[in-house]
Amino acid sequence: MYQDKITTRLIFGMENGLLQQDAIARTAEALEQLTRKARSLGADGDVLAFGTSAMRDAQNSLSLIERCRPFLPDIRILTGDEEADLAYAGAAPAGRRGVIDIGGGSTELMGGENGVRLFARSLNLGAVRLYEAMPGCSDPSNLRQAARSLLQGAREGVAPFLPLPWTGVGGTVTSLAALDLGLSLYDPLRVQDHPLAADFVFGSLETLCAMSPEERAIIPAIGPQRSDIIPCGAAILSAFFELFEVDGLLVSDRDSLMGYLKKYAFPPDACG
């Protein structure tokens, strides 16, 4: 299966509930580029697309949808619960397990047993949101405390299901796994099921905060696209480890995108 990714940071700079026009433009351009690539590889049916935190929070999401309509007639905006369901389905953890999905605009916490979800919480806490809330902050303790305060309510709601082993998905988690593995080129097969220790994440948060964005940008596992926000993502994961008293998790490269494909492109009843 061919995979590609273009990071556009749609939520970056959102003000008064409005997406910035340049963010809409670069996201539409990326979607058109990916649609062309899918067609060139032989995709002749519907191209599926969905939006998450930024699009469900923005008042002008329709502007992006209309801009893409000539080449992408249907963009579905997921609710927080739907996003959690799809991330859980994408990671497809066996047995009884929780899943944390750290994105740019939101973080989802969900858990279940043998593919059946038992709980889900969606929080307006993501690497980009935290970065914009605390611009220029390089103090790991302050970043971690800010994330912890937002995670506290979710911890209380999830408490009846704890303790759980956890799987982590999303760009923050996979980037930290690639950093831990010392990858010079991202390899989803090596990242998949990599055990990411809390101690490594705590140490990485301290190290990353002590570096400039330019210094972080030359690290292959991070690159220029995540160099400014990776400390915020690491702070969220660190706060999660502390608050949920977890000493590590397994990393999954399969997230809500895989869950969406399972549900809408290859639903179980399609094979019956």
Identify the strand order in the major beta sheet: 5-4-3-6-8-7
What composes the largest sheet? 6 strands, mixed
What's the shape? globular
Which secondary-structure class do the elements indicate?
alpha/beta
CATH class of the largest domain: Alpha Beta
Number of strands: 8
What kind of oligomer do you see?
single chain
Overall tally of domains: 2
The arrangement of helices and strands along the chain is: HEHHEHEEEHHEHHEHHHHEH
What's a quick, concise take on this entry?
This protein has 272 residues and is of the alpha/beta class. Helix content is 49%, strand content 14%. The protein has helices at 21-40, 53-57, 61-68, 80-91, 127-133, 140-158, 171-181, 188-191, 198-210, 213-217, 223-226, 230-243, 256-265; strands spanning 50-51, 76-77, 96-102, 107-113, 116-123, 166-169, 195-197, 248-251.
Characterization of the model:
This protein is α/β, with parallel strands linked by helices. The chain folds into two domains: 21-77, no CATH class; 84-257, Nucleotidyltransferase, domain 5, CATH 3.30.420. Helix content is 49%, strand content 14%. It has helices at residues 21-40, 53-57, 61-68, 80-91, 127-133, 140-158, 171-181, 188-191, 198-210, 213-217, 223-226, 230-243, 256-265; strands spanning 50-51, 76-77, 96-102, 107-113, 116-123, 166-169, 195-197, 248-251. The chain has a six-stranded mixed beta sheet with strand order 5-4-3-6-8-7, sandwiched between helices. Strands 1-2 form a two-stranded parallel sheet. α4 (80-91) crosses α13 (256-265) and α9 (198-210) packs antiparallel against α12. The chain is globular and about 50 Å long. The two termini are 23 Å apart.
